[in-house]
Amino acid sequence: MHMEKATETKEISIEEKLKALYELQLVASEIDKIKILRGELPLEVQDLEDEIAGLDTRIVKNKADIAQVDAEIAGKKIEIDEAKMLIVKYEEQQNNVRNNREFDFLSKEIEFKKLEIELAEKKIGEFTASAKQKKEELEQAVVFIDERKDDLTAKKAELDEIVSETKQEEEKMRERAKAIEELIEPRLLTAFKRIRKNARNGLAVVYVQRDACGGCFNKIPAQRQLDIRLRKKIIVCEYCGRILVDSELAGIEKQ
Fold first, then answer.
1. Are 245 and 207 contacting, i.e. CB atoms less than 8 angstroms apart?
2. Taking the model in full, what pTM does it have?
3. Do residue 125 and residue 202 come from a single domain?
4. Using CA of residue 152, residue 157, residue 162, residue 168, what is the dihedral sign?
5. Is the dihedral of CA 228, 233, 239, 243 positive or negative?
6. Are residues 27 and 76 located together in one domain of the fold?
7. What is the CB-side half-sphere exposure of residue 109 using CA atoms within 13 A?
8. Do 66 and 56 sit in the same domain of this protein?
9. Is residue 180 assigned to a domain?
10. Are residues 120 and 221 located together in one domain of the fold?
11. Using CA atoms, how far apart are residues 123 and 129, in angstroms rounded to an integer?
């Protein structure tokens, strides 16, 4: 029993929790400033990468379609050559027929092969037009993807420059935030993150300014302000739900 008590984590006071929450808010706000400095660049980079991936897929498909059409054209040309050879063969056979029936049969075969050639030539025309269109689409996609790759290179260079300038500071801030979070109980930390996520300016903890909430600026009753200054319990704004601390705890009055 004595050993269990020795290993228990010491419960920090409400005042210490409030101080930790406010400090965590300050650190989180600094990280937000860094993200604002980067602006929409990370999203723009991601969008460009997705667009380029889509264009790559389209180009691969276009090339496969063109190869398929070329193969179809080649196949039809072979059919035409074979049909022409058979026509020559049948015409030669007509010179050596024994009766009209054989001559008429060969004439029908020749006519059939001529129809096959006509149909194959028509298909070649359709395939050629299709191949031309697909090749134009491929050329446009290649030009477009080159432009997008240039845009991506520029955006990445811009983002990398900003990240390199702020990376060390951000890492320092995140380490500080992690250390503070270890002081705050999970339930309270979850509430802090939820409030921060829902707050437009990312402020989950604010101090009382001119008798009002520092987040939504609604007036706070005198008794409630007294409770906030006593630091005996976690108090939230009844209008916006933000956690409230007194200005002295925030270091404002001391300044």
1. yes
2. 0.54
3. no
4. positive
5. positive
6. no
7. 18
8. yes
9. no
10. no
11. 10
**CA terminus-to-terminus distance, the chain:** 47
Q: Are the C-beta atoms of 233 and 227 separated by less than 8 Å? A: yes
Copy the structure tokens of residue 126: 């359709």
Instruction: Evaluate the CA torsion angle 211, 215, 216, 221 in order and state its sign.
Output: negative
Q: Which DSSP string do the residues of 26-57 spell out, in sequence order?
A: HHHHHHHHHHHHHTTHHHHHHHHHHHHHHHHH
Task: Please report which helix (H) or strand (E) contains residue 245, including its range.
Answer: strand 243-245
Choosing from 165, 195, 210, the residue where a domain stops is: 165
Number of domains in the chain: 2
Model pLDDT, residue 161:
86
From the first residue on, what is the mean pLDDT of each consecutive set of 10 residues in the chain (255 residues)?
Answer: 39 91 95 85 91 95 95 95 95 91 94 96 95 94 94 91 85 94 93 92 94 94 95 94 94 63
Cβ atoms within 10 Å, residue 101: 9
Strand order in the sheet with 243-245: 205-207, 243-245, 235-236
- Judged by DSSP in three states, 236 sits in strand
**174 in a domain, yes or no?**
no
Q: State whether 127 and 239 are in the same domain.
A: no
User: Do the domain assignments include residue 53?
Assistant: yes
Q: What pLDDT does 1 receive?
A: 35
What integer pLDDT is reported at residue 241 of this predicted model? 94
Residue 63 belongs to what domain range?
39-165
User: Do both 157 and 217 map to the same domain?
Assistant: no
Residue 253: the pLDDT is 61
H or E element at residue 63? helix 41-94
CB atoms within 10 A of CB 181: 15
Structure tokens at 72: 């179809």
Same domain, 56 and 154: yes
DSSP state for residue 185 in the 8-state scheme: -
